[in-house]
Every structure is written in C-alpha cells, then in structure tokens.
Amino acid sequence: MNWSSYIKGFKAYLQLERSLSSNSIVAYEHDIVKLCQFLEIKKIELSPEEIDIAILREFVRWVSELGMMPTSQARMVSGIKTFYKYLMMEDIIKKNPSELLEAPKTARKLPDILHVDEIDKMISVIDLSKPEGVRNKAILETMFSCGLRVTETVNLKISDISFIEQFVRVIGKGNKERLVPIGRVAIKAINFYIENVRNHIEVKTGSNDILFLNRRGSGLTRVMIFYLIKRFALEAGIKKKISPHTFRHSFATSLVEAGADLRAVQQMLGHESITTTEIYTHIDREYLRDVITQFHPRS
C-alpha cells in the first residue's frame, strides 16, 4: 500500500500550517515511515483509513522489542497522533484510531543546574585580557540572564537587543518569537564586548548583525559554545555534567525558587506546554530540604 501521497500532504501541513522547523518535519516523517516499514514487514496491506488501534498498539510493541528507548517511543507516538489529526482535518478519515494510543511512561530526569556562585567561578577563569575572553564572558552572562538555547545564542542579533528597555527578541523553535528581559550585568558585558572587541573585528558578509563573532568575523558555531562551557567548567573545578543547556536550566530554576510565576517562566523559556516548565518546580531537592529545615516547626 503506497502511503507516499499521505506523507507528502502531511509534510506540507507541518511546514505551512504548523510552521515547524525542517528538523521537526524530518522527525515526524520518520515516525510515519517507520510505521510503513512495520506494515511492510508484517505484510499488512492497509491504507491509513483502514488502520485501527490494535495495529497501532502492535506497532508500538514492535519498536519497543527492537530496543527503542521509552523516550523515543513516546516521541514517535506523538508523531503518529499528529499524523492522524492531520488526516481527520483533511476528512481523509472519519475516526481517529490513535486517540486511545498510549505512549510508554518515561522517567523525567532532573537536569544538573549551576548556582550563581558556580557561574561566577566559571566566569572568573576567563582570561579577560584577550578579546575572545571579553566575548566569552558576555556569552555566559547572556545565556544565564535570558535562558537562551545554544542555537538562540549563536543566532542572536544586535538588532534583537533593546538596550534601553532591557529586552531581547528571541527567535526560538519553529521560528516562534518571544521577548525575554535581560539583566543589567549581561547588558554591561555585551556593551563592553561590542565597544572594545566587536567594533574592531572585520565582519564577514552576512554576519553584520550577528552579536557574537569569532576572530575571523563570522558567527560562532553550536559546537564552539559547547567547547567553551565544558572548558570553563573544567578549569573552575566544577564536577557536574555541564552543557550550554545547563545555563537555561539554571535560569529557570533560579526564577522558580525565587517565587516567579510558572506561566511567566514558560513564556520566557518559549515552552509550548506548561508541563515542560513544571519540571523546574521539582528540580532542587536540596533547596526544598533547606526550606523545610528552616521553617517547619517539627524540623
């Protein structure tokens, strides 16, 4: 049974109506291709209209037996559900067989975070006598101040920063735009970097508005940010598993612990679902233990 026309229409829907990134579209397409492979191997010749919940459940068991991790299974189930929602919207099917399809339960791993003193340690090992050191300090301050993803950091433009109002315009996943406040410390580090380093670099064509540049005048890569953060953590003697995303986790955790509204944190992080943000209400067990010790009458 040829599913190619359905997949083609699904991809167009994801791109034009959902405005998803190319990586997300490829991932969704892979989910449906995997389902097609299952049907072919099992010699099940059915069109999308003829698939029922029993076949979808058998498919999930099949990918599980192949060794697919529960988190990947859950993401694949989400892709299948999105595909069938699209078919319903297009009136290709009258009943959605994926409605009762359940994803395997996955443990929510609590990520490592950095406390302010640890971030200060990392910044303290940066050699500020070198131009790249001034830039690197500005990068770390910006990531912690705004909770940016690594891609959002390397793509950050000077024109995206409102230095007076102290807001940053961020283009996140799926080209979704959000406004995030930026603190005075980060603003100061960025201004110092622009005035003393960036203004003296011969900027390559196409990078004129990119904030963080390498010495050749081009934008930085994601890999470069990963390398810098790993290096500074090592030099600062921090033993935790650190990545650029750790700064994002630390940003969110510090806000939630200080009593920030979860919806506001969700908006600043650019999370589509509040459920994703809720992990930060459970993140710092030591912090919670300290609160109990300090305030509970029986502690």
Give your account of this protein's structure.
Helices cover about 55% and strands about 5% of the residues. The protein is built from 13 helices and three strands, in the order αααααααβββαααααα. It has a three-stranded antiparallel beta sheet with strand order 1-2-3. A hairpin with a 5-residue loop joins β2 and β3. α2 packs across α4 and α6 packs antiparallel against α8. About 30% of the residues are buried. The radius of gyration is 23 Å and the shape is elongated. It has about 300 residues and is mainly alpha-helical.
Using DSSP, what is the number of strands? 3
Instruction: Provide the low-confidence segments as ranges.
Output: none
Task: Kindly state the percentage of residues in helix.
Answer: 40-55%
What fraction strand? under 5%
Number of helices: 13
Our measurement of the CA-to-CA distance between the termini, rounded to an integer number of angstroms, reads: 66 Å
Largest sheet: 3 strands, antiparallel
H/E element sequence = HHHHHHHEEEHHHHHH
User: If strands are numbered along the chain, what order do they take across the biggest sheet?
Assistant: 1-2-3
Shape: elongated
Classify the secondary structure makeup into a structural class. mainly alpha
Averaged pLDDT, please?
A: 86
What radius of gyration results from the CA coordinates?
A: 23 Å
